[in-house]
Design a protein that fits this description.
α3 packs across α4 and α4 packs across α5. The protein has 6 helices and 8 strands, in the order βββββαααβββααα. It is elongated and about 65 Å long. The protein has a 3-stranded mixed sheet. Strands 6-8-7 form a 3-stranded mixed sheet, covered by helices on one side. It folds into 2 domains: 72 residues, no CATH class; 103 residues, Metalloproteases ("zincins"), catalytic domain (Zincin-like), CATH 3.30.2010.10. With 192 residues, it is an alpha/beta fold. Bound molecules: zinc ion. Zinc ion (ZN) binds next to α4.
Length: 192
Protein backbone atom coordinates (compact mmCIF):
# COMPACT_ATOMS: atom_id res chain seq x y z
CA UNK A 1 0.00 0.00 0.00
CA UNK A 2 1.46 3.37 -0.94
CA UNK A 3 2.18 5.80 1.85
CA UNK A 4 -0.46 8.48 1.99
CA UNK A 5 0.92 11.92 2.39
CA UNK A 6 -1.91 13.01 4.68
CA UNK A 7 -1.08 10.14 7.02
CA UNK A 8 2.28 11.64 7.91
CA UNK A 9 2.44 13.14 11.36
CA UNK A 10 3.51 16.74 10.88
CA UNK A 11 6.68 17.66 12.75
CA UNK A 12 8.68 20.78 13.27
CA UNK A 13 12.47 20.86 13.52
CA UNK A 14 13.64 22.60 16.68
CA UNK A 15 16.83 24.63 17.16
CA UNK A 16 18.35 21.85 19.31
CA UNK A 17 18.14 19.42 16.36
CA UNK A 18 15.17 17.45 17.69
CA UNK A 19 11.85 17.23 15.92
CA UNK A 20 8.50 17.72 17.59
CA UNK A 21 5.09 16.48 16.46
CA UNK A 22 2.03 18.69 16.31
CA UNK A 23 -1.63 18.29 15.43
CA UNK A 24 -3.50 20.22 12.76
CA UNK A 25 -7.12 21.22 13.27
CA UNK A 26 -8.83 22.38 10.10
CA UNK A 27 -11.65 24.73 10.92
CA UNK A 28 -14.27 26.25 8.64
CA UNK A 29 -14.44 29.43 10.67
CA UNK A 30 -10.68 29.87 11.05
CA UNK A 31 -9.30 32.86 9.12
CA UNK A 32 -5.69 32.81 10.17
CA UNK A 33 -3.18 30.22 11.29
CA UNK A 34 -2.93 29.89 15.03
CA UNK A 35 -0.45 27.88 17.04
CA UNK A 36 -1.24 26.83 20.60
CA UNK A 37 0.77 25.02 23.21
CA UNK A 38 -1.33 23.24 25.82
CA UNK A 39 -0.30 22.53 29.41
CA UNK A 40 -0.40 18.79 28.71
CA UNK A 41 2.37 19.26 26.12
CA UNK A 42 0.30 19.19 22.92
CA UNK A 43 1.10 21.63 20.15
CA UNK A 44 -1.92 22.35 17.94
CA UNK A 45 -2.15 24.37 14.75
CA UNK A 46 -5.59 25.73 13.86
CA UNK A 47 -5.94 26.47 10.17
CA UNK A 48 -8.64 27.44 7.67
CA UNK A 49 -10.07 24.50 5.71
CA UNK A 50 -8.58 25.81 2.48
CA UNK A 51 -5.03 26.61 3.62
CA UNK A 52 -2.38 24.75 1.66
CA UNK A 53 -0.32 22.08 3.36
CA UNK A 54 2.97 23.73 2.34
CA UNK A 55 1.84 27.00 3.92
CA UNK A 56 1.11 25.23 7.20
CA UNK A 57 4.47 23.50 7.28
CA UNK A 58 6.32 26.73 6.53
CA UNK A 59 4.33 28.64 9.14
CA UNK A 60 5.02 26.18 11.94
CA UNK A 61 8.68 25.91 10.99
CA UNK A 62 8.99 29.71 11.10
CA UNK A 63 7.83 29.53 14.75
CA UNK A 64 10.42 26.89 15.72
CA UNK A 65 12.25 29.21 18.11
CA UNK A 66 9.04 30.08 19.97
CA UNK A 67 7.96 26.41 20.05
CA UNK A 68 11.34 25.39 21.46
CA UNK A 69 11.22 27.93 24.30
CA UNK A 70 7.56 27.34 25.10
CA UNK A 71 8.11 23.60 25.18
CA UNK A 72 10.90 24.04 27.74
CA UNK A 73 8.56 26.10 29.92
CA UNK A 74 5.71 23.60 29.63
CA UNK A 75 8.06 20.69 30.40
CA UNK A 76 9.28 22.46 33.54
CA UNK A 77 5.75 23.09 34.87
CA UNK A 78 4.59 20.77 37.61
CA UNK A 79 1.75 18.63 36.30
CA UNK A 80 -1.39 18.35 38.35
CA UNK A 81 -2.31 14.82 39.41
CA UNK A 82 -5.43 14.95 37.24
CA UNK A 83 -3.40 15.88 34.14
CA UNK A 84 -0.85 13.12 34.77
CA UNK A 85 -0.91 9.37 34.35
CA UNK A 86 -1.00 6.85 31.55
CA UNK A 87 -3.19 3.89 30.63
CA UNK A 88 -0.53 1.67 32.22
CA UNK A 89 -0.82 3.61 35.49
CA UNK A 90 -4.58 3.13 35.38
CA UNK A 91 -4.32 -0.63 34.87
CA UNK A 92 -1.70 -0.95 37.60
CA UNK A 93 -3.58 1.09 40.21
CA UNK A 94 -7.24 0.45 39.39
CA UNK A 95 -7.55 -2.43 41.86
CA UNK A 96 -5.86 -0.51 44.66
CA UNK A 97 -8.18 2.46 44.06
CA UNK A 98 -11.16 0.13 44.10
CA UNK A 99 -10.18 -1.38 47.46
CA UNK A 100 -9.56 2.09 48.88
CA UNK A 101 -12.93 3.41 47.68
CA UNK A 102 -14.84 0.39 49.01
CA UNK A 103 -13.15 0.49 52.41
CA UNK A 104 -13.64 4.23 52.92
CA UNK A 105 -17.24 4.18 51.64
CA UNK A 106 -18.06 1.47 54.19
CA UNK A 107 -16.23 3.34 56.91
CA UNK A 108 -18.00 6.66 56.40
CA UNK A 109 -21.34 5.09 55.63
CA UNK A 110 -21.56 3.90 59.25
CA UNK A 111 -22.50 7.53 59.96
CA UNK A 112 -24.92 7.85 57.03
CA UNK A 113 -26.52 4.50 56.26
CA UNK A 114 -26.98 5.24 52.55
CA UNK A 115 -27.04 2.55 49.88
CA UNK A 116 -25.51 2.46 46.43
CA UNK A 117 -25.47 0.20 43.40
CA UNK A 118 -22.12 -0.08 41.73
CA UNK A 119 -18.73 1.51 42.40
CA UNK A 120 -16.58 1.96 39.28
CA UNK A 121 -13.01 3.15 38.97
CA UNK A 122 -12.38 5.24 35.88
CA UNK A 123 -9.56 6.90 34.01
CA UNK A 124 -10.68 10.50 33.56
CA UNK A 125 -8.66 13.66 33.15
CA UNK A 126 -11.25 16.14 34.32
CA UNK A 127 -12.99 14.86 37.41
CA UNK A 128 -12.31 13.02 40.64
CA UNK A 129 -15.65 11.36 41.03
CA UNK A 130 -19.30 11.35 40.13
CA UNK A 131 -22.57 9.86 41.24
CA UNK A 132 -25.56 8.96 39.09
CA UNK A 133 -29.23 9.19 39.96
CA UNK A 134 -29.33 5.40 39.79
CA UNK A 135 -26.90 5.27 42.70
CA UNK A 136 -23.81 4.31 40.74
CA UNK A 137 -20.67 5.89 42.11
CA UNK A 138 -17.53 6.52 40.04
CA UNK A 139 -14.08 7.43 41.20
CA UNK A 140 -10.98 8.47 39.32
CA UNK A 141 -8.19 5.91 39.89
CA UNK A 142 -5.92 8.84 40.81
CA UNK A 143 -7.57 8.98 44.27
CA UNK A 144 -4.93 6.35 45.10
CA UNK A 145 -2.23 9.01 44.58
CA UNK A 146 -3.80 11.58 46.89
CA UNK A 147 -3.03 12.20 50.56
CA UNK A 148 -5.62 10.12 52.49
CA UNK A 149 -7.52 13.16 53.79
CA UNK A 150 -8.12 14.37 50.21
CA UNK A 151 -9.14 10.93 48.96
CA UNK A 152 -11.60 10.83 51.88
CA UNK A 153 -12.98 14.22 50.86
CA UNK A 154 -13.78 12.90 47.38
CA UNK A 155 -15.24 9.64 48.65
CA UNK A 156 -17.50 11.34 51.21
CA UNK A 157 -18.50 13.95 48.61
CA UNK A 158 -19.87 11.28 46.26
CA UNK A 159 -21.35 9.36 49.17
CA UNK A 160 -23.36 12.42 50.20
CA UNK A 161 -24.57 12.89 46.62
CA UNK A 162 -26.47 9.61 47.03
CA UNK A 163 -28.74 11.55 49.38
CA UNK A 164 -28.42 15.13 48.11
CA UNK A 165 -28.04 15.40 44.35
CA UNK A 166 -26.72 18.98 44.41
CA UNK A 167 -24.41 21.28 46.34
CA UNK A 168 -27.07 22.82 48.57
CA UNK A 169 -26.42 23.84 52.19
CA UNK A 170 -28.03 20.53 53.15
CA UNK A 171 -25.42 18.69 51.11
CA UNK A 172 -22.53 20.52 52.80
CA UNK A 173 -23.96 19.94 56.26
CA UNK A 174 -24.16 16.22 55.43
CA UNK A 175 -20.49 16.32 54.47
CA UNK A 176 -19.63 18.26 57.60
CA UNK A 177 -20.97 15.39 59.71
CA UNK A 178 -17.89 13.30 58.95
CA UNK A 179 -15.51 15.88 57.41
CA UNK A 180 -15.88 19.05 59.49
CA UNK A 181 -12.90 20.68 57.73
CA UNK A 182 -14.26 19.98 54.23
CA UNK A 183 -13.67 23.61 53.17
CA UNK A 184 -9.93 23.42 53.80
CA UNK A 185 -9.70 20.04 52.10
CA UNK A 186 -11.57 21.31 49.07
CA UNK A 187 -9.07 24.18 48.77
CA UNK A 188 -6.13 21.79 49.04
CA UNK A 189 -7.61 19.53 46.40
CA UNK A 190 -7.52 22.39 43.92
CA UNK A 191 -3.76 22.63 44.43
CA UNK A 192 -2.80 18.99 43.77
ZN1 LIG B 1 -20.48 17.30 43.92
Amino acid sequence: MPLRKDRRIPTVYLPDGNSFAYAVRRRHGARALRLQFFADGRLVLSAPKTARESVLIAFVQSRAEWIYHTKQKVDAMPKSILASGTRTDFLAVREEASVLAAARLEHFNRSYGFSWNRVTIRDQKSRWGSCSKKGNVNFNYRIAFLPPELADYIIVHELCHLEEFNHSPKFWSLMGKTIPDYRERRKKLKLV
